Amino acid sequence: MTLLINHIGIAVKSLDTSLSFYRDVLGMPFEGTEEVAEQKVRVAFLGVGESRIELLEPTSPDSSVAKFLEKNGEGIHHIAYQVEDIVATLARLKASGVRLIDESPRHGAHHSLIAFLHPKATGGVLTEICQPA
Ligand code: CMX
After folding, report:
1. What are 4-18's pLDDT values in tens digits?
2. DSSP SS3 for 131
3. 129 lines ligand 1 (CB under 6 A)
4. Using a 6 Å cutoff on CB, does residue 77 contact ligand 1?
5. Nearest CA, atom 43, ligand 1
6. Are 7 and 54 within 8 A, CB to CB?
Protein backbone atom coordinates (compact mmCIF):
# COMPACT_ATOMS: atom_id res chain seq x y z
CA MET A 1 0.00 0.00 0.00
CA THR A 2 2.85 2.42 0.79
CA LEU A 3 4.57 4.22 -2.04
CA LEU A 4 6.83 6.49 -0.01
CA ILE A 5 7.03 8.72 3.02
CA ASN A 6 5.14 11.74 1.73
CA HIS A 7 6.17 13.94 4.66
CA ILE A 8 7.12 14.11 8.32
CA GLY A 9 5.07 16.61 10.33
CA ILE A 10 6.85 18.72 12.94
CA ALA A 11 4.83 20.80 15.40
CA VAL A 12 6.23 24.30 15.83
CA LYS A 13 5.16 27.38 17.75
CA SER A 14 6.09 29.77 14.94
CA LEU A 15 6.47 28.95 11.25
CA ASP A 16 8.56 32.07 10.71
CA THR A 17 11.07 31.17 13.44
CA SER A 18 11.30 27.54 12.33
CA LEU A 19 11.62 28.47 8.66
CA SER A 20 14.65 30.56 9.41
CA PHE A 21 16.32 27.35 10.66
CA TYR A 22 15.12 24.78 8.09
CA ARG A 23 15.19 27.05 5.03
CA ASP A 24 17.95 29.53 5.86
CA VAL A 25 20.37 27.52 8.05
CA LEU A 26 19.87 23.94 6.79
CA GLY A 27 19.25 25.27 3.27
CA MET A 28 16.27 23.02 2.54
CA PRO A 29 14.20 24.05 -0.51
CA PHE A 30 11.10 25.96 0.65
CA GLU A 31 7.95 24.87 -1.19
CA GLY A 32 5.50 27.39 0.29
CA THR A 33 2.97 27.82 3.08
CA GLU A 34 -0.73 27.02 3.20
CA GLU A 35 -3.55 27.19 5.74
CA VAL A 36 -5.39 23.90 6.22
CA ALA A 37 -8.63 25.19 7.78
CA GLU A 38 -10.10 21.74 8.43
CA GLN A 39 -7.07 20.81 10.57
CA LYS A 40 -6.70 24.28 12.18
CA VAL A 41 -3.06 24.59 11.14
CA ARG A 42 -0.84 26.69 8.93
CA VAL A 43 1.81 24.55 7.28
CA ALA A 44 5.09 25.08 5.46
CA PHE A 45 6.70 22.45 3.26
CA LEU A 46 10.44 21.96 2.70
CA GLY A 47 11.75 19.40 0.24
CA VAL A 48 14.00 16.48 1.21
CA GLY A 49 14.68 14.29 -1.81
CA GLU A 50 11.32 12.93 -3.00
CA SER A 51 9.81 13.61 0.45
CA ARG A 52 9.29 16.73 2.56
CA ILE A 53 9.16 18.18 6.03
CA GLU A 54 5.82 19.75 7.00
CA LEU A 55 6.10 22.40 9.70
CA LEU A 56 2.78 22.74 11.53
CA GLU A 57 1.74 25.88 13.38
CA PRO A 58 -1.67 25.87 15.12
CA THR A 59 -4.20 28.53 14.07
CA SER A 60 -6.48 28.01 17.06
CA PRO A 61 -6.00 27.05 20.73
CA ASP A 62 -8.31 24.04 20.19
CA SER A 63 -6.21 22.71 17.29
CA SER A 64 -4.80 19.23 17.92
CA VAL A 65 -1.35 20.70 17.19
CA ALA A 66 -1.87 23.35 19.90
CA LYS A 67 -2.72 20.55 22.35
CA PHE A 68 0.37 18.62 21.26
CA LEU A 69 2.62 21.67 21.76
CA GLU A 70 1.15 22.34 25.18
CA LYS A 71 1.81 18.75 26.28
CA ASN A 72 5.11 17.98 24.53
CA GLY A 73 6.61 21.21 23.23
CA GLU A 74 7.94 21.37 19.68
CA GLY A 75 8.86 18.11 17.95
CA ILE A 76 7.91 15.33 15.55
CA HIS A 77 4.11 15.17 15.36
CA HIS A 78 3.32 12.56 12.69
CA ILE A 79 4.59 10.53 9.74
CA ALA A 80 2.58 10.55 6.51
CA TYR A 81 2.68 7.58 4.13
CA GLN A 82 1.55 8.11 0.58
CA VAL A 83 -0.88 5.58 -0.85
CA GLU A 84 -2.45 5.14 -4.27
CA ASP A 85 -6.03 4.62 -3.07
CA ILE A 86 -6.81 6.09 0.35
CA VAL A 87 -10.42 4.82 0.44
CA ALA A 88 -9.35 1.24 -0.24
CA THR A 89 -6.49 1.55 2.26
CA LEU A 90 -8.82 2.84 4.99
CA ALA A 91 -11.28 0.03 4.31
CA ARG A 92 -8.50 -2.55 4.57
CA LEU A 93 -7.14 -1.05 7.80
CA LYS A 94 -10.62 -0.91 9.31
CA ALA A 95 -11.26 -4.54 8.37
CA SER A 96 -7.95 -5.40 10.08
CA GLY A 97 -9.20 -3.78 13.29
CA VAL A 98 -6.88 -0.75 13.23
CA ARG A 99 -8.24 2.18 15.28
CA LEU A 100 -8.87 4.99 12.83
CA ILE A 101 -9.23 8.67 13.72
CA ASP A 102 -10.75 9.37 10.30
CA GLU A 103 -12.95 6.68 8.75
CA SER A 104 -13.18 8.68 5.57
CA PRO A 105 -10.64 11.02 3.99
CA ARG A 106 -10.42 14.72 4.86
CA HIS A 107 -8.88 17.54 2.87
CA GLY A 108 -5.19 18.19 3.50
CA ALA A 109 -2.63 20.56 2.04
CA HIS A 110 -2.25 20.81 -1.77
CA HIS A 111 -5.81 19.42 -2.19
CA SER A 112 -4.61 16.01 -1.03
CA LEU A 113 -6.87 13.52 0.75
CA ILE A 114 -5.66 12.57 4.22
CA ALA A 115 -6.69 10.36 7.14
CA PHE A 116 -5.09 9.65 10.50
CA LEU A 117 -4.63 6.39 12.40
CA HIS A 118 -4.73 6.64 16.18
CA PRO A 119 -1.27 6.67 17.84
CA LYS A 120 -2.50 4.05 20.31
CA ALA A 121 -2.89 1.65 17.34
CA THR A 122 0.51 2.38 15.83
CA GLY A 123 3.01 2.03 18.65
CA GLY A 124 2.77 5.68 19.71
CA VAL A 125 3.40 7.27 16.30
CA LEU A 126 0.58 9.40 14.95
CA THR A 127 0.29 8.06 11.40
CA GLU A 128 -1.25 9.77 8.40
CA ILE A 129 -2.05 8.19 5.10
CA CYS A 130 -2.40 10.53 2.18
CA GLN A 131 -3.31 10.47 -1.46
CA PRO A 132 -1.96 13.44 -3.40
CA ALA A 133 -4.36 15.34 -5.67
N1 CMX B 1 1.90 11.55 18.43
C2 CMX B 1 1.89 10.52 19.33
N3 CMX B 1 0.98 10.43 20.35
C4 CMX B 1 0.06 11.41 20.42
C5 CMX B 1 0.02 12.50 19.52
C6 CMX B 1 1.01 12.55 18.51
N7 CMX B 1 1.03 13.54 17.61
N8 CMX B 1 -1.00 13.31 19.86
C9 CMX B 1 -1.59 12.76 20.93
N10 CMX B 1 -0.95 11.61 21.27
C11 CMX B 1 -1.25 10.73 22.38
C12 CMX B 1 -1.22 11.51 23.68
O13 CMX B 1 0.07 11.55 24.22
C14 CMX B 1 -2.18 10.70 24.56
O15 CMX B 1 -1.51 9.58 25.09
P16 CMX B 1 -1.68 9.20 26.64
O17 CMX B 1 -3.13 8.86 26.80
O18 CMX B 1 -0.76 8.03 26.82
O19 CMX B 1 -1.30 10.43 27.42
C20 CMX B 1 -3.24 10.20 23.55
O21 CMX B 1 -2.60 10.26 22.26
C22 CMX B 1 -4.47 11.07 23.53
O23 CMX B 1 -4.02 12.39 23.32
P24 CMX B 1 -4.70 13.71 23.88
O25 CMX B 1 -3.67 14.72 24.20
O26 CMX B 1 -5.70 13.37 24.95
O27 CMX B 1 -5.38 14.33 22.61
P28 CMX B 1 -6.71 13.96 21.92
O29 CMX B 1 -7.26 12.67 22.38
O30 CMX B 1 -7.59 15.14 22.05
O31 CMX B 1 -6.23 13.81 20.41
C32 CMX B 1 -5.41 12.69 18.52
C33 CMX B 1 -5.19 12.97 20.00
C34 CMX B 1 -4.18 11.97 17.98
C35 CMX B 1 -6.66 11.80 18.38
C36 CMX B 1 -5.65 14.06 17.78
O37 CMX B 1 -4.49 14.85 17.92
C38 CMX B 1 -5.97 13.91 16.31
O39 CMX B 1 -7.12 13.66 15.96
N40 CMX B 1 -4.98 14.04 15.40
C41 CMX B 1 -5.21 13.91 13.97
C42 CMX B 1 -5.38 15.26 13.30
C43 CMX B 1 -4.13 16.09 13.38
O44 CMX B 1 -3.18 15.80 14.11
N45 CMX B 1 -4.12 17.20 12.59
C46 CMX B 1 -2.99 18.12 12.53
C47 CMX B 1 -2.10 17.87 11.31
C48 CMX B 1 -2.83 18.18 10.03
C49 CMX B 1 -2.01 18.15 8.75
O50 CMX B 1 -0.93 17.54 8.69
O51 CMX B 1 -2.50 18.73 7.76
Report:
1. 999 999 999 999 999
2. strand
3. no
4. yes
5. 64
6. yes
